[in-house]
Amino acid sequence: MIHHIELYVSDLKKSSLFWGWLLEELGYIPFQKWDEGRSWKWKDSYIVFVQVEESFVDHGYHRKRIGLNHLAFHAKSREHVDYLFNQLETMGINILYRDKYPFAGGKGHYALYFEDPDRIKVEVVAVTHS
Fold first, then answer.
1. For the chain, how far is it from start to end, CA to CA, in angstroms?
2. Domains of the chain
3. Among 66-70, 81-85, 99-103, which is the least confidently predicted range?
4. What is the mean pLDDT of the chain?
5. Which of 29, 9, 3, 25 is nearest to 84 (CA)?
6. Which of 73, 46, 90 is nearest to 127 (CA)?
7. Are 49 and 101 in contact (CB under 8 A)?
8. Cβ atoms within 10 A of the Cβ of 104, count?
9. Number of C-alpha atoms within 13 angstroms, CB side, residue 85?
10. Could you say which DSSP state residue 100 is in?
């Protein structure tokens, strides 16, 4: 089990609004808050977002470089995935693979892919049990 994941972000305020909304939609609760960071918790694991130091902002993030490609979360249902799709679209969030939604991950993989404010890819998937 993962204890926690920590991500550095270019704009803590913008990322906190985005991630706070999403994580709370997925069942996480606010956990920690300090000047340079925020976290949300689910059971015994939590996700932390920390303001990157100014000297590193220009380097940016790209998921095709070495390191994190994306974060994937469970949705409550297919209807929940669709609800999130509509909410993200209304918010103007970049939805990836729109032309293949909701099966961009393959047949039977009902998922939504989009980007956070730093262009980190996020996946929300409804797992159905056969």
1. 24
2. 1-57 (3.10.180.10), 69-130 (3.10.180.10)
3. 66-70
4. 93
5. 25
6. 73
7. no
8. 16
9. 20
10. G
CB 120 within 8 A of CB 14: no
Q: What is the pLDDT of residue 56?
A: 87
Which amino acid appears at position 45 of this protein?
Answer: S
Q: Closest Cα partner for 74 from 1, 40, 23?
A: 23
CA 115 to chain CA centroid, Å, is 7
**55: Cα separation from own chain's centroid:** 25
Of 1-15, 31-45, 46-60, minimum mean pLDDT range: 46-60
| Token code pair at residue 69 | 């490609």
> In sequence order, which ranges of the chain are alpha helices (DSSP H)?
12-25, 54-57, 78-91
- Kindly tell me if the per-residue pLDDT of 43 is higher than 70: yes
